[in-house]
Backbone:
């Protein structure tokens, strides 16, 4: 995998003008830069100016124990060959109760629909989004914010509860 | 730049809301004769579309939520249901992301086998796309031809993996079957047949003046617009953008196979159709090169030794085909797969599926179920084209543009 | 000179005056309703089989494997006639029921203006201006398709109806011009003279192929043949004007479309392919009337078969492209066809073969 | 030698010539296929595809090879296969458990067959079995050991598809499966060596009888 070149981390630091100890970690397959919500928009603007011209995926991850929701914008470039091999994850963490993140759809239009999806699944309120309404789910399901960890989905186990005779006669698959 | 003041608070379909003066709302779908389940709310002024709002989610199977409850290995058949006609390309990035977390690099033969199946699926998926394209333009011959010829590649996949569509072929560390003995000449025959058929497709469809006039200059996406909207796959390369995951970040055996990435400059529906024809040709040549390599090299190394070293002797007998009813070259899995625990970490992987670039963000906290899997498919990234590319065209252009973007509703709903 | 009208002597009483009375007979039986239905069934079967052969499949097969699925069409006919007719509440019932019936009747009407023999006894109407009358009657039925669309009060059918009205403006002028180009060449409106002028083997279709081509394309446009299947294209507007129709009413609509194509084909067979050309109608009912009409029917069938084969080759045009083709390509071609017609009249092409006496 | 960029250009619209040649080309191709159609439709009930042994069809359990480890139930992505505890006889310490399958949920992914350490599960190379109600799809332990009865093979003609340069796929008559009259040995199309064949059939024959009376006597 050619994504672990040290050059990209340095380049990111210079693009975003971050302090040397700012958290830019080289992960498996992408480089994550975590920024606080206030400076998210101008970090995105700098990235776009530097050549990261589109967002591949907008992800939200729910950490109930840390009471935080992390929103990651995986951005990369299509036009600039030197950057198209790398993916940058611009991450911010907001508290879990009423997560509001400045919407980047004005900078990257490609993030618009995925921000709507994160709104309906996690309840992350992207302020400044042109029309923030549920994309995939119906409004009442979206109100339950299904992808949060507290929306439990119970899984079945490996063993049948009914006994041999009961199963052979009634064939109840419990 | 959002649409001008359409502050519609709730889902348009659900509530009546004041229309502008003479806009006429037509709902196309959800049970649509051509594609799958999707609804497009089109506000039409006369015959020209003013506002197009895709109302998707009819085939949403909550794959991201389900994946958080299932073991690592069980998510492969789950994610495959996103686009079963392109099963290998869709599950491969998930397998690669987890392999990155496991620090396991599949052996050379497994990489070539994966590339081979990915290309067979790409051709089958492009042919499916041409079939739907034909239905949308009323050209039933192309629909029947595309689906008929797709049978050749589905048969190839069935010979290689034992299942027609849902192969679940890649697994962590390798693949589940090795190539049968006579598979090479099957691939060469299928490739020769398909090359001849592609010229006939062009003659009856792309060079047919009736279809050309429907496609030329329709749904034009400029180079900068395509990049700004973040479209994916052939739709981007048809607008002149030189971007392909197999070129930017070669995965599996794509850096050892020489092929060309066709780029078209026009960016209209016709260019997207020609783009797919050229990509099928390239896929056929990749398939042939992969099969040549596989036939020349010895039959070992289809699974990483970490998962094969501790295999009991019966596994070798099953692979050799001595067990009578077990078929030949079947790779058995060691029971470790059933309770695999992936070390904590976050990883991101992307491949070039037939509908476009597909990306997985996998986060694990060391347990036997993933903590979070975020998957964005090619069709999902192209949905934004409804809203920004379609307005201004005629209502009758909607099928032409829809078909040229090669949408697959189950893939964008996930 | 047209010889004296000899009274026809077929049957007596109810047979003579109702069933074998030429205007009724020609409307109801031979080229009319019954023949049209039989031809429609054959053409639908041929269309499905031909498209299937081109498209790597078999078409109707399972119902009667030996005869290649022919009884499938009878099964469809029975299904249509016994299916439940669901009338939505929001439909304005009078026009909803009247329009399909009127469409069928009016698309059959031109058959009365077409002679099928030289024996004046079997002419349904005086044949002096028959070509003019036939072409005029053909332009009546589209209005009822629009009435259907208006009556069914549904978004898709209204859009379909508007498209039908657009496409009428596209093909109307072209059809009339190309059909009348034969009058220019033979300087007569009498279809019998036209057919007799071609009886010497020199068909007008060969002499003025441009007119034949434009008439062929105009017919495709009227009956939404395949490149121009726009009013009821199922990918964006479900079934166009016929969306709200079910059961027998839907059968009637489809029948009207095929009957209109059949009527156009009969007229084109008469004008361009020389009607009953090689055969000279003899005396009596069978030789003088039945046989020539069968010959004309066979020629019309060939034209219809070619039209329905195009389903396997073409997609669908957009409405503005169809209009573009209609106005920018077909109208000049039709005018050129009339020009060729005048040139033939100037050089007395048909007169040269001694037919001029007839026309004087 | 990774991929190279290759800029192409879609054929231009051209003047009237292109329109006529386009139309004529399409029509000629249509007539060519009208006269010589290339059809490989399978007339399903009258013919059926004879799939080779590698095909992932219905799954059958060999009772005495199964050690009840439960890894097949653990790996099954759709919980279609779960472990059923046999009634505990007095002498035994641990409760014995065997897998049973629910074909309403099974997606034929073949994970269970691939993970079974003692190769106690195997695929039967056919999949088109019809049941009259959903309960028949849930198999008991005894039904799970018998191979499902393949009705299509009775009146259909076995057919195989081979690849062909000109025609794509060509239907070819497959030779009759060596289906023995008794319990239906594993019908392998590839001519597996006869002795092995008989030995496998014989092993299944006697193994299927044991559990039923075992189960029944409890």
Residues:
């Amino acid at each position: 995998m050619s994504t672990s070149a040290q050059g990209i981390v340095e380049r990111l630091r210079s693009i975003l003008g971050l302090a040397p100890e700012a958290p830019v970690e080289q992960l498996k397959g992408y480089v994550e830069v975590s920024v606080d919500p206030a400076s998210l928009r101008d970090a995105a603007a700098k990235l776009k100016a530097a050549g990261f011209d589109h967002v591949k995926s907008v992800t939200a991850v729910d950490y109930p124990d840390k009471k935080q929701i992390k929103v990651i914008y995986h951005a990369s470039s299509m036009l600039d060959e030197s950057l198209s091999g790398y993916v940058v994850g611009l991450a911010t963490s907001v508290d879990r109760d009423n997560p509001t993140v400045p919407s980047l759809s004005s900078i990257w239009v490609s993030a618009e629909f995925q921000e709507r999806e994160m709104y309906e699944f996690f309840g992350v309120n992207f302020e400044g989004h042109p029309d923030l309404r549920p994309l995939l789910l119906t409004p009442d399901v979206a109100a339950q914010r299904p992808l949060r960890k507290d929306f439990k989905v119970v899984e079945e186990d490996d063993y049948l509860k009914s006994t041999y005779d009961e199963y052979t006669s009634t064939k109840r698959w419990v | 730049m959002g649409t001008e003041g359409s502050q519609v608070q709730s889902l348009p379909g659900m509530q009546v809301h004041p229309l502008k003066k003479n806009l006429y709302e037509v709902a196309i779908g959800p049970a649509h004769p051509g594609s799958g389940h999707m609804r497009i709310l089109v506000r039409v002024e006369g015959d020209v579309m003013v506002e197009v709002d895709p109302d998707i989610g009819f085939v949403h199977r909550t794959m991201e939520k389900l994946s958080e409850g299932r073991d690592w290995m069980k998510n492969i058949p789950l994610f495959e249901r996103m686009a079963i006609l392109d099963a290998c390309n869709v599950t491969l990035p998930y397998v690669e992301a987890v392999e990155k977390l496991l620090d396991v690099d599949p052996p050379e033969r497994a990489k070539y086998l994966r590339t081979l199946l990915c290309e067979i699926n790409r051709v089958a998926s492009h042919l499916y796309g041409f079939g739907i394209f034909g239905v949308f333009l009323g050209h039933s011959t192309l629909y029947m031809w595309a689906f008929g010829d797709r049978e050749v590649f589905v048969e190839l996949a069935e010979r290689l993996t034992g299942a027609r569509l849902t192969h679940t072929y890649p697994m962590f560390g390798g693949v589940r079957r090795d190539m049968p003995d006579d598979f090479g000449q099957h691939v060469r025959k299928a490739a020769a047949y398909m090359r001849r058929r592609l010229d006939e497709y062009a003659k009856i469809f792309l060079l047919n003046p009736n279809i050309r006039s429907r496609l030329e200059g329709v749904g034009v996406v400029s180079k900068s617009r395509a990049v700004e909207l973040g479209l994916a796959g052939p739709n981007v390369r048809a607008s002149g953008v030189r971007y392909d995951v197999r070129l930017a970040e070669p995965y599996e055996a794509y850096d050892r196979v020489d092929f060309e990435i066709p780029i078209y400059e026009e960016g209209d529906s016709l260019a997207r159709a020609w783009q797919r024809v050229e990509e099928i040709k390239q896929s056929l040549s990749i398939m042939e090169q992969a099969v040549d390599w596989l036939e020349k090299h010895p039959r070992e190394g289809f699974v990483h030794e970490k998962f094969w070293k501790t295999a009991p002797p019966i596994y070798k007998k099953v692979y050799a085909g001595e067990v009578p009813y077990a078929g030949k070259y079947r790779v058995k899995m060691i029971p470790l797969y059933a309770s695999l625990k992936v070390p904590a970490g976050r990883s991101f992987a992307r491949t070039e599926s037939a509908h476009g670039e597909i990306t997985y963000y996998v986060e694990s906290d060391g347990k036997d179920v993933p903590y979070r899997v975020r998957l964005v498919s090619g069709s999902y990234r192209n949905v934004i084209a409804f809203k920004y590319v379609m307005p201004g065209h005629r209502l009758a252009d909607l099928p032409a543009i829809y078909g040229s973007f090669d949408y697959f509703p189950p893939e964008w709903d996930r | 000179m047209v010889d004296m009208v000899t009274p026809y002597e077929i049957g007596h009483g109810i047979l003579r005056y109702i069933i074998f009375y030429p205007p009724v007979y020609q409307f109801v039986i031979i080229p009319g309703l019954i023949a049209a239905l039989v031809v429609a069934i054959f053409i639908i079967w041929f269309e499905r089989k031909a498209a299937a052969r081109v498209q790597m499949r078999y078409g109707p097969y399972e119902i009667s494997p030996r005869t290649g699925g022919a009884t499938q069409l009878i099964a469809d006919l029975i299904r249509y006639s016994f299916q439940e007719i669901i009338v939505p509440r929001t439909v304005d019932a009078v026009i909803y029921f009247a329009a399909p019936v009127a469409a069928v009747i009016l698309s059959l009407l031109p058959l009365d203006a077409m002679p099928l023999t030289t024996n004046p006894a079997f002419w349904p109407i005086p044949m002096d201006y028959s070509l003019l009358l036939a072409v005029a009657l053909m332009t009546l039925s589209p209005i009822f398709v629009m009435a259907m669309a208006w009556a069914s009060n549904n978004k898709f059918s209204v859009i379909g109806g508007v498209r039908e009205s657009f496409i009428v403006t596209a093909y109307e002028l072209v059809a009339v011009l190309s059909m009348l180009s034969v009058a220019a060449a033979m300087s007569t409106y009498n279809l019998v003279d036209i057919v007799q002028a071609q009886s010497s083997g020199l068909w007008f279709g060969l002499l003025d192929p441009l007119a034949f081509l434009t008439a062929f394309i105009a017919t495709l446009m009227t009956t939404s043949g395949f490149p121009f299947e726009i009013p009821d294209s199922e990918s964006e507007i479900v079934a166009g004007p016929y969306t709200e129709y079910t059961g027998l009413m839907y059968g009637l609509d489809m029948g009207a479309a095929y009957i209109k194509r059949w009527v156009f084909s009969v007229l084109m067979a008469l004008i361009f392919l020389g009607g009953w050309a090689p055969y000279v109608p003899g005396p009596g009912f069978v030789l003088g009337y039945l046989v020539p009409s069968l010959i004309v029917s066979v020629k019309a069938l060939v034209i219809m078969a070619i039209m329905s084969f195009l389903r396997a080759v073409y997609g669908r045009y957009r409405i503005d492209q169809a209009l573009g083709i209609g106005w920018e390509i077909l109208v000049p071609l039709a005018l050129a066809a009339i020009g060729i017609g005048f040139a033939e009249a100037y050089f007395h092409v048909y007169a040269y073969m001694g037919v001029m006496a007839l026309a004087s | 030698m990774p991929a190279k960029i290759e800029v192409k250009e879609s054929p231009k619209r051209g003047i009237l010539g292109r329109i006529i040649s386009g139309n004529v080309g399409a029509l000629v191709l249509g007539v060519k296929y009208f006269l010589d159609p290339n059809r490989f439709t399978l007339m399903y009930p009258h013919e059926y595809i004879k799939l080779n042994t590698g095909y992932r069809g219905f799954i059958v359990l060999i009772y005495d090879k199964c050690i009840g480890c439960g890894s097949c139930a653990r790996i099954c992505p759709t919980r279609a296969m779960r472990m059923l505890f046999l009634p505990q006889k007095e002498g035994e310490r641990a409760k014995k458990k065997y897998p049973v399958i629910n074909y309403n949920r099974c997606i034929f992914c073949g994970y269970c067959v691939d993970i079974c350490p003692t190769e106690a599960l195997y695929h039967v190379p056919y999949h088109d079995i019809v049941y009259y109600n959903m309960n028949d799809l849930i198999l008991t332990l005894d039904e799970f050991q018998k191979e499902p009865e393949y009705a299509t093979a009775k009146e259909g003609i076995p057919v195989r598809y081979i690849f062909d340069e000109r025609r794509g796929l060509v239907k070819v008559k497959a030779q009759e499966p060596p289906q023995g009259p008794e319990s239906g040995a594993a019908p392998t199309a590839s001519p597996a060596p006869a002795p092995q064949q008989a030995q496998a059939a014989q092993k299944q024959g006697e193994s299927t009888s044991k559990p039923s009376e075992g189960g029944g006597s409890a």
